[in-house]
Amino acid sequence: MKGRCFLIRYCDDFVIGCEREEDARRILAVLPKRFARFKLAMHPQKTRLVKFQPPRRQDEGERGDGTFDCLGLTHDWATSRRGYWVIKRRTAKKRLRRVMRAVWHWCRTHRHDPIREHYRQLRAKLRGHYQSDGIRGNDRKLEALYRGVERAWRYWLSRRGGPRTIRWETFAKLRAVLPLPTPRIVHSS
């Protein structure tokens, strides 16, 4: 390598960062051959070269170059509160939609279970998501998930066979007794 490089790996997913584009292109050319030696293959849609650098001075109002998803998080450039370019990580849109759909489906199929069981399961689902995606800068996505879980829970509790839907005031009383965990940042980096 002619410049600095780094490797971030988690199970079978990895990101290789190179300071120089020529180093990255050389790695991208050699890596499939090296994988083939061990009878492994790289996923063609997930393997790509991304120019990931902060914007230049003249593009000050623009977002950074390149965006990529890794381990369910979208990595991109944004400005910090002090005006410096920093890498922001947020829950990927696809993953958030998938989680919301799964919660909606779970609430629908278990709507006749006891409310305490709903509460226990939804609390565990939210805590698990906060553990994996509770990183600094991801608070809006966590809040969107929290609101989505509340809506799904209220909607499907209203369809348990009663004559009317549960009003938000009644649901607020239920939440006071059985509060869902609020979004929180677990990891600072």
Secondary structure topology:
Blueprint: E1 5-10, E2 13-18, H1 21-37, E3 68-70, E4 73-79, E5 85-91, H2 93-109, H3 115-133, H4 139-157, H5 168-177
Antiparallel strand pairs: 1-2, 3-4, 4-5
Helix pairs in contact: 2-4, 3-4
How is this structure best summarized?
This protein is an alpha+beta fold. It has helices spanning 21-37, 93-109, 115-133, 139-157, 168-177; strands at residues 5-10, 13-18, 68-70, 73-79, 85-91.
Question: Could you please describe the fold and organization of this structure?
Answer:
With 189 residues, the chain is of the alpha+beta class. A 3-stranded antiparallel beta sheet has the order 3-4-5. Strands 1-2 form a two-stranded antiparallel sheet. Strand 1 and strand 2 form a beta hairpin. The protein is elongated. The mean pLDDT is 86.
Radius of gyration: 22 Å
Instruction: Please indicate the percent range of residues in DSSP E strands (runs of 2 or more).
Output: 15-25%
| Terminal CA distance | 28 Å
Weakly predicted, low-confidence segments: none
Outline type: elongated
Spatial arrangement of strands, main beta sheet: 3-4-5
User: Total strand count, please?
Assistant: 5
**What structural class do the secondary elements suggest?**
alpha+beta
H/E topology pattern: EEHEEEHHHH
So how many helices? 5
Q: Approximately how much helix is present in the residues?
A: 40-55%
Q: How many strands, what sense, and barrel or not for the largest sheet?
A: 3 strands, antiparallel
